[in-house]
Design brief:
This is Trafficking protein particle complex subunit. The chain is of the alpha+beta class. The protein has 3 helices and 5 strands.
Length: 169
Protein backbone atom coordinates (compact mmCIF):
# COMPACT_ATOMS: atom_id res chain seq x y z
CA UNK A 1 0.00 0.00 0.00
CA UNK A 2 1.42 3.37 -0.96
CA UNK A 3 0.56 6.64 0.71
CA UNK A 4 1.06 10.19 -0.53
CA UNK A 5 2.23 9.11 -3.97
CA UNK A 6 5.59 7.84 -2.77
CA UNK A 7 7.27 5.42 -5.11
CA UNK A 8 7.66 1.91 -3.79
CA UNK A 9 11.22 0.76 -3.36
CA UNK A 10 11.80 -2.48 -5.18
CA UNK A 11 12.20 -5.24 -2.63
CA UNK A 12 15.72 -6.35 -1.99
CA UNK A 13 16.56 -9.84 -0.84
CA UNK A 14 15.11 -10.52 2.56
CA UNK A 15 17.44 -10.04 5.45
CA UNK A 16 18.24 -13.29 7.21
CA UNK A 17 16.80 -13.76 10.67
CA UNK A 18 18.12 -15.87 13.51
CA UNK A 19 16.30 -18.99 12.38
CA UNK A 20 16.46 -18.28 8.64
CA UNK A 21 12.72 -17.54 8.61
CA UNK A 22 11.21 -14.24 7.47
CA UNK A 23 7.76 -14.91 8.94
CA UNK A 24 6.96 -13.39 12.30
CA UNK A 25 3.36 -14.47 12.86
CA UNK A 26 0.19 -15.57 11.12
CA UNK A 27 -3.52 -15.28 11.84
CA UNK A 28 -6.54 -16.96 10.28
CA UNK A 29 -9.90 -15.37 11.12
CA UNK A 30 -13.36 -16.51 10.09
CA UNK A 31 -15.93 -14.02 8.77
CA UNK A 32 -17.16 -13.29 12.31
CA UNK A 33 -13.75 -12.24 13.60
CA UNK A 34 -13.02 -15.45 15.50
CA UNK A 35 -9.33 -16.32 15.39
CA UNK A 36 -9.16 -19.89 14.11
CA UNK A 37 -5.37 -20.09 14.08
CA UNK A 38 -2.49 -18.06 15.45
CA UNK A 39 1.11 -19.10 14.88
CA UNK A 40 4.37 -17.39 15.81
CA UNK A 41 7.82 -17.92 14.38
CA UNK A 42 9.93 -14.84 15.13
CA UNK A 43 8.11 -12.51 17.49
CA UNK A 44 10.71 -11.11 19.86
CA UNK A 45 8.42 -8.89 21.93
CA UNK A 46 5.05 -9.86 23.43
CA UNK A 47 3.17 -6.97 24.97
CA UNK A 48 -0.46 -8.13 24.87
CA UNK A 49 -2.33 -11.22 25.87
CA UNK A 50 -3.59 -13.30 22.95
CA UNK A 51 -7.23 -12.16 23.18
CA UNK A 52 -6.26 -8.48 23.01
CA UNK A 53 -3.81 -9.18 20.20
CA UNK A 54 -6.46 -10.97 18.11
CA UNK A 55 -9.03 -8.22 18.68
CA UNK A 56 -6.56 -5.51 17.71
CA UNK A 57 -5.51 -7.35 14.55
CA UNK A 58 -9.10 -7.96 13.45
CA UNK A 59 -9.95 -4.32 14.24
CA UNK A 60 -7.01 -3.15 12.16
CA UNK A 61 -8.20 -5.25 9.21
CA UNK A 62 -11.76 -4.02 9.59
CA UNK A 63 -10.60 -0.39 9.67
CA UNK A 64 -8.23 -0.71 6.71
CA UNK A 65 -10.86 -2.50 4.60
CA UNK A 66 -13.40 0.19 5.46
CA UNK A 67 -10.92 2.98 4.68
CA UNK A 68 -9.87 1.53 1.33
CA UNK A 69 -13.53 1.01 0.34
CA UNK A 70 -14.35 4.62 1.29
CA UNK A 71 -11.41 5.94 -0.75
CA UNK A 72 -12.28 3.85 -3.84
CA UNK A 73 -12.26 6.34 -6.76
CA UNK A 74 -14.27 4.02 -9.04
CA UNK A 75 -17.36 3.57 -6.84
CA UNK A 76 -19.84 6.46 -6.52
CA UNK A 77 -21.84 4.75 -3.73
CA UNK A 78 -19.29 4.48 -0.95
CA UNK A 79 -21.65 4.02 2.01
CA UNK A 80 -20.72 4.99 5.53
CA UNK A 81 -17.24 4.53 6.90
CA UNK A 82 -17.19 1.47 9.16
CA UNK A 83 -20.10 -0.36 7.56
CA UNK A 84 -19.07 -3.97 6.85
CA UNK A 85 -18.82 -5.03 3.23
CA UNK A 86 -19.17 -8.44 1.70
CA UNK A 87 -15.93 -10.24 0.76
CA UNK A 88 -14.74 -9.05 -2.63
CA UNK A 89 -16.98 -5.98 -2.53
CA UNK A 90 -15.37 -2.60 -3.08
CA UNK A 91 -11.69 -1.76 -3.05
CA UNK A 92 -9.36 -3.74 -0.81
CA UNK A 93 -5.72 -3.84 0.19
CA UNK A 94 -3.15 -6.61 -0.04
CA UNK A 95 -0.33 -5.46 2.20
CA UNK A 96 1.34 -2.61 3.98
CA UNK A 97 4.87 -2.13 5.20
CA UNK A 98 6.40 -0.36 8.19
CA UNK A 99 10.06 -0.04 9.09
CA UNK A 100 9.88 -3.23 11.20
CA UNK A 101 7.38 -5.53 9.47
CA UNK A 102 5.20 -6.16 6.44
CA UNK A 103 1.59 -7.28 6.86
CA UNK A 104 0.12 -9.26 3.95
CA UNK A 105 -3.61 -9.94 3.82
CA UNK A 106 -5.98 -12.11 1.82
CA UNK A 107 -9.72 -12.59 2.20
CA UNK A 108 -11.42 -15.58 0.61
CA UNK A 109 -14.91 -15.42 -0.94
CA UNK A 110 -16.21 -17.24 2.15
CA UNK A 111 -14.87 -14.49 4.43
CA UNK A 112 -11.83 -16.33 5.79
CA UNK A 113 -9.04 -13.82 6.40
CA UNK A 114 -5.40 -14.85 6.32
CA UNK A 115 -2.78 -12.45 7.66
CA UNK A 116 0.95 -13.07 7.46
CA UNK A 117 3.36 -10.69 9.18
CA UNK A 118 6.89 -10.92 7.81
CA UNK A 119 10.19 -9.08 7.52
CA UNK A 120 9.66 -5.69 5.81
CA UNK A 121 11.75 -6.63 2.77
CA UNK A 122 9.69 -9.71 1.95
CA UNK A 123 8.24 -9.54 -1.57
CA UNK A 124 4.65 -9.90 -2.77
CA UNK A 125 2.94 -12.75 -0.89
CA UNK A 126 -0.43 -12.90 -2.68
CA UNK A 127 0.34 -16.26 -4.28
CA UNK A 128 1.72 -17.60 -1.00
CA UNK A 129 -1.47 -16.59 0.81
CA UNK A 130 -3.56 -18.33 -1.86
CA UNK A 131 -1.45 -21.45 -1.38
CA UNK A 132 -1.96 -21.26 2.40
CA UNK A 133 -5.70 -20.92 1.82
CA UNK A 134 -5.62 -24.03 -0.40
CA UNK A 135 -3.81 -25.89 2.40
CA UNK A 136 -6.54 -24.72 4.78
CA UNK A 137 -9.27 -26.04 2.47
CA UNK A 138 -7.54 -29.38 1.85
CA UNK A 139 -6.46 -30.19 5.42
CA UNK A 140 -9.02 -28.39 7.57
CA UNK A 141 -12.29 -27.77 5.72
CA UNK A 142 -12.33 -31.18 4.03
CA UNK A 143 -11.50 -32.90 7.32
CA UNK A 144 -14.70 -34.59 8.58
CA UNK A 145 -13.51 -34.24 12.18
CA UNK A 146 -13.21 -30.44 11.97
CA UNK A 147 -16.04 -28.44 13.50
CA UNK A 148 -16.43 -25.20 11.43
CA UNK A 149 -15.78 -22.09 13.49
CA UNK A 150 -13.62 -23.84 16.06
CA UNK A 151 -9.89 -23.45 16.61
CA UNK A 152 -7.81 -25.35 14.05
CA UNK A 153 -6.14 -28.36 15.69
CA UNK A 154 -5.21 -30.40 12.62
CA UNK A 155 -1.63 -31.61 13.09
CA UNK A 156 -1.09 -32.35 9.39
CA UNK A 157 -2.20 -28.81 8.46
CA UNK A 158 0.00 -27.25 11.15
CA UNK A 159 3.05 -29.24 10.07
CA UNK A 160 2.56 -28.53 6.35
CA UNK A 161 1.86 -24.85 7.03
CA UNK A 162 4.93 -24.53 9.21
CA UNK A 163 7.18 -26.09 6.56
CA UNK A 164 5.74 -23.88 3.82
CA UNK A 165 5.90 -20.61 5.78
CA UNK A 166 9.50 -21.31 6.81
CA UNK A 167 10.39 -21.67 3.12
CA UNK A 168 9.01 -18.24 2.16
CA UNK A 169 11.75 -15.72 1.50
Amino acid sequence: MQFFGASEISPSPAAPTASGNNAHMMYIFNRNGVCLLYKEWNRPLKTLDSQQDHKLMFGLLFSLKSLTAKMDPTDADKGNLGVPQLPGQGCSFHSFRTNTYKLSFMESPSGVKIILVTHPRTGDLRESLKYIYNLYVEYVIKNPLYNPGSTIRCELFNTTLDQYVRSIS
